[in-house]
Design a protein that fits this description.
The complex is a heterodimer of chains A (about 350) and B (about 725). Chain A is α/β, with parallel strands linked by helices and about 350 residues long. Helices cover about 50% and strands about 15% of the residues of chain A. With about 725 residues, chain B is α+β, with helices and mostly antiparallel strands. Helix content of chain B is about 50%, strand content about 10%. In chain B, helix 3 runs antiparallel to helix 5. Classes of the chains: A alpha/beta (about 350), B alpha+beta (about 725). At the A-B interface, helix 14 and helix 15 of A face helix 18, helix 19 and helix 20 of B.
Amino acid sequence: MTPDTESSLEVATTGLSVDPTALEAPISLTPLSEAQRVLHQLIDAVKQKVLGRDDVIELCVIALVADGHVLLEDFPGSGKTTLAKTLGEAIVASEMNGQDGESSATGLSAFRRIQFTPDLLPSDVTGVPVFDPNENSFHFRRGPLFAHVVLADEINRTSPKVQSAMLEAMGEKQITVDNTTYPLGDLFFVIATQNPLDLAGTYPLPTPQLDRFLFKITMQHIDRDAELAVLDSHLAIAASSEPAPITVKQNDILAARETIKKQVAIDAAVKTALVDISRALREDARVLQGNSTRSIVLLLPALQTAAALDGRNYVSASDIERLLPRVLGHRIELTPGAGNFEKILHDVMAKPMEELARATLR
Amino acid sequence: MDNNFQVLRLVVIAFAAWLFSLPLSIASGSVGAVLGASFAIIVIQRAHSRGDLDLAIRLPAILGAASVIALTGLSIAIYLRNGSSLNQGVSALAGESLQPLTLYKSGEFIAALLLAAAVCGTLRLLALRSAAGRMAEIIFTASSIVLTLTAHRNGMIDRPFILGDFALIRGYDPAYLLMSIGVAALLALVAINLRDTSGSRNFYHLSVISIASLMLFVFVERIGLPSPELTNDLGLTGNTGQSEHDDNPFQDSTNDPKDKAAPVAVVVFHDDYEPVDGSYYFRESAYSQFNGTRIDYASRADMDTDLLAGFRDPSAANIGHALSPIPAAPRKTVRTTIGTLIPHRAPFALDTPTGFTRVANPNTTRFDTTYEATSAVPLFDYNTLIGRETGAEDWSEDLRAEYLRLPDDPRYSDLAHSLTASLKPEFSNDAFAQVWVIKQYLDENGIYSLKNAHATEQDPAASFLFGDLTGYCVHFAFSAVYLYRSLGIPARVGVGYSVPASNRAGGSSLLIQAIHGHAWPEVYFRDVGWVIIDPAPQQTLVDMATDPQDNLQQLLGDMLRDDASFDQFIAAQAEQRFDFGLLAKRLFASLFIAAFIVLCLSYLTKAYTRLAPRFGRSEWLYRSTLKANLERLASMGFNRQYGESREAFAERCQELSPSFYALTRAHLQRSLADKRQPCSTDWLALDHSIQQELRTNLPLWRRIAGLLNPLSSLAAR
């Protein structure tokens, strides 16, 4: 509770009106270490429940703070829901007593899960106006998208119509129903999943839609020790009362987001390397379609967040090495038979990364 | 690009397979080897580029498959060569077209094809798997070149003839041509293999190998290749050394009949001389002292004083002692220059030598030893010897007795006396008459043959003389000497060469060939010396004639004479050709100087890099400290890979030096974030602690090697 409550309150009250100038003054006071603490708190909160997925958890938290969304490609029963649910529940409203003011007004719940099926309709996701005979008017009943963390399970199983409604919410942070636009919270964060196998009867997301996801994370099965630990802790959690959950205030996260954006430096050499890698990928014969400029723009805050997580106030080559495969993997289309994307990226990255490494000695 | 390199590699390895196949097989086999190697490499390379190849395949599996293929090829070849049933079967199918020769050729083809495919395929697979495999491939190519090169040393003629002839016709040593081809092939293969591995240091590796190859040429030019083992016959027949002297002289020589023509020495006459009895006799040594079973080399110093014990004999300058020429026995002084082509026990010269002088060897690759000999050659006929006493006046009784000893066998004396009994009374006590009647007995009754049954007898001479009288010069000579000695005439067996006078063919040079090796009886007549009285059996089972080798005789003679014309010829040859040696020397010298300058510069750079943190500007410390420590690590072999981030490298080195990680973080912080802010990091302290950690974590030799490594400032980045 180090940040002064006043500034937090201000964030909360003005959170929905996107006015950066109003936010600037109070939030710049927060030191970077505070942002780092917030990040670690979020990670620890999820780690309490989800075992053996440290890398995925960190990436999800980075995406959350960097204002992006995550597409998980994973097998059923691998802990996606637990991850998303824990993450959602770890984020609490800023002030218990201020809750009646804003939180009820925004009406955002911590976590919602949507199971996508072929017969789902957009209104099932966004919400629908319902006639209230008492007031003799339509009243908008919010759909499951009105939450901080939304788990969109098997997003490729639903029709493109629903997918596009979903993607509008992800891109614009708002929902439009009957020409009325309902804003979503600043922290609106979607974890979508798709099953890499069993593709019959699915509507694969086209590349431009995939572009809305900051990371695509292909999860591996957790290792043996972690799997054993999952079995142990499952029984333990069921038997005893759960440990006191770690919670992070919404406003703290927003403050951390601003702090990181302002205080983590991105050197010109880093930007040069990113642009060079993108250009080299587009020119590579094995690549059919390169990544968009938007992908690099989205990548910058993610790089900053990863740097802050590591306790640095600058973005360095290791951040690029860590995040670039996750960011570009689903944005690049390879020519048929070109082989492994990881290898192509490794080849293409070598020269710009070497330049970046040498830039600091000049 | 990739394809070009693979084609080049294919060419290089197929070339190596071809070289290997040359001494092992016939032309069809060579074609098979090239095709087999190419096929195996193409198949493996195709599979690899498509990604079908599982490189995790076990080594024993690879070797097993390769040996199965190779053995299949060999057994097919053997079957085609020997399998008559198959021959008949195939012949029946294909009509008469399949001759045994065709079968043999196709067998060789298949064997070489499969063998080359197995070997080259295995090597390519291994090369794809690991760096050690790539080395094996390089070694394969290198050894093919080396084997071919060694066969061509000192202008020797060997396969592949097209290369050897090409060079020899133009006056080059074929070894250089092969060396150039080999070095080019090796460099190409090394370059291709280096290209397969990533990393920019390949340039240095390649230049080091190139310099090493160039040095090879310079060293060969300066020092020369090691000589091939000296053989009797200039490497024409593969016969080694003259072993006649060490073995039982009665032992049949194992030489092939075709070795008989091999040249062993050449003699150049400075004075004209035609021998009285039609042959030039060159005495090298003599059997004169009885050793209990037969007469052997003399061990007493006062025996055979006209002979030299060896090439280093101090009395070589003048050895003529027993000659007090008398008017009745005219002699002529003949000077000769003799060049031996194979090693000899002692110098030999025309009978009777009076002095030996060593002369400069005009061609060390051709001649083993060259010397000048002066001989007082006999011009008298045998009439001069009639009525002459035997033995020298100054011989002691003891010495004379040595020349009269013979095996304890009464039959010698009986035979000798029965032969001399037929002499007219006035000659019955004359030594020469006795000698002559015995010679005539051997001439008339002996049968000359190189095949004989006496070699294993206790006394082969007795077995010959009292047996079938069939043998060769050694038998005749020993028998005659024993018979003479039984009559009280001092005699010995002279050993050397006897060349028919007609061989000289009017020229001034005389070629001595292996077939001219000879042994003959000699008798000492007072005031005349040792006189050769050579039995000439009238019946012979051997054709002793050799083809006249006038050209070789002329060539070797000219070479030995070291004529100005010959020099001019050689000089003209030398002028015509380009002096590769000089070019190589200059190139090497300039390279050496360049290397020295580069070395100095790199040490200067190294020193500057390391000392910069102490003396440089403080605002540059964040760079100079990292640079110095990067160089320090690089010199000990810790390099950042191409494209590797600074942090990743620092993490790799964290165990070695935690402070280096801290330094890297601080450096990145300074250069990527806080560019203008004053920095609180104590760079020099970090520098100091890194040195401290390296000192504790690395052995001393590694640090010293690092200090000496000149290339580290290039590798540090």
